[in-house]
């Protein structure tokens, strides 16, 4: 047994981290389940029940926000399919040089006069966005609608998936944030009530001591 103790040596970083993790887990467990603690007060039990309720609500909200994300993906995908038919890729040719100098507060991109062909035939002239210093005759890829007007790029499947994930995560974080705010507000009220009760108890004890 002595040899075994000598070979084991002092606990390392892994042992200390395990002890610290166990301590945090124990504190969380005591906070969640205070009903069996004889020193627990009604406010402690209310706070624990509220915390457990909000944790369960956050868990139950996961499938709900997942369904919301799925519906968002389906709707955005429908828009993507519609835009894939109504938007057309084209090439615009700059008719002038883009400005080179840039003053404070100006954007790097500028609007320059350009010419492009309509989807149904014919040419159209308008301003396109390009980088500063771009020379005349440079070809700029653009997206056009059925009328030949400049429009935004169509939504892709990846974009629809990104929008769906963003909506789902934002909704879940909103639920968690709301639960957290309500819990902190209730905890603050309970803390003030505990402090007031503690002050009253001390005042009562001081009066009893002064009578002796």
Question: Can I get a quick summary?
Answer:
This protein is α+β, with helices and mostly antiparallel strands. It is built from four helices and five strands. It has helices spanning 2-8, 13-32, 42-86, 157-211, and strands at 88-94, 109-117, 123-131, 139-144, 150-151.
Which sequence of SSEs, written as H and E, runs from N to C? HHHEEEEEH
How many individual β-strands?
Answer: 5
Query: Cα distance, first to last residue?
Result: 60 Å
The helicity comes to 55-70%
Q: How is the quaternary structure best described?
A: single chain
Shape: elongated
Number of helices: 4
Portion in strands? 15-25%
Account of the protein in words:
With 212 residues, the chain is α+β, with helices and mostly antiparallel strands. Helix 3 runs antiparallel to helix 4. Residues 1-9 have low confidence and may be disordered. The two termini are 60 Å apart. Helices cover 60% and strands 16% of the residues. It is elongated. The longest helix has 55 residues, at 157-211. A 5-stranded antiparallel β-sheet has the order 3-2-1-4-5. The protein has helices at 2-8, 13-32, 42-86, 157-211; strands spanning 88-94, 109-117, 123-131, 139-144, 150-151. The chain has 4 helices and 5 strands.
């Amino acid at each position: 047994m002595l040899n075994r103790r000598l070979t084991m040596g002092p606990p390392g970083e892994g042992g200390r981290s395990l002890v610290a993790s166990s301590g945090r887990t124990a504190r969380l467990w005591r906070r969640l389940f205070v009903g069996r603690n004889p020193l627990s007060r009604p406010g402690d039990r209310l706070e624990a029940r509220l915390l457990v309720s909000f944790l369960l609500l956050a868990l139950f909200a996961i499938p709900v926000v997942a369904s919301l994300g799925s519906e968002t993906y389906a709707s955005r995908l429908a828009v993507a399919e519609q835009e894939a038919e109504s938007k057309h890729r084209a090439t615009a040719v700059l008719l002038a040089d883009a400005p080179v100098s840039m003053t404070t507060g100006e954007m790097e991109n500028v609007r320059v006069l350009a010419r492009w062909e309509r989807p149904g035939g014919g040419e159209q002239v308008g301003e396109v966005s390009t980088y500063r210093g771009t020379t005349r005759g440079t070809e700029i890829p653009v997206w056009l609608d059925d009328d030949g007007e400049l429009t935004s790029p169509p939504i892709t499947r990846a974009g629809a998936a990104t929008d769906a994930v963003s909506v789902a995560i934002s909704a879940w974080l909103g639920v968690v944030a709301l639960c957290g705010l309500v819990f902190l507000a209730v905890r603050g009220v309970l803390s003030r009530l505990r402090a007031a009760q503690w002050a009253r108890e001390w005042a009562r004890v001081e009066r009893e001591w002064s009578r002796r």
